[in-house]
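We close this part of the discussion by returning to an individual protein. The encoding preserves chain order, so positions in sequence and tokens coincide. The sequence in question and its structure tokens are set out directly beneath this paragraph:

===
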Amino acid sequence: MALNVTDASFEEEVINSDVPVVVDLWAEWCGPCRMIGPIIEEMSTEYEGRAKMVKVDIDSNPGIPSKHGVRNIPTVLFFKNGEVVDKQVGAVPKAVLAKKLDALL
């Protein structure tokens, strides 16, 4: 299951992670975000132990999108060694996200 991350827990869960992290920035009112959500959940099971999937509700945690220049949602950020190494904006098929994550493993 994807982990819900806040402004307070972001550094510990994402920046300090020893595995690649996929960060789904979303909001409850965002239709395309609801399309990405189930994909992130599926991937959290499939990549368990090899990568971490986290979700950030941008309405409750404005610091993270602000720091990373996120202007549109859904935005999926790919972190490795504490740095953003890839990004996907908008709803896309699971294969697109999986291909980007596989490149980091």
In short: The CA atoms of residues 9 and 15 lie 10 Å apart. Strands lie at 3-4, 21-26, 52-57, 75-80, 83-89.
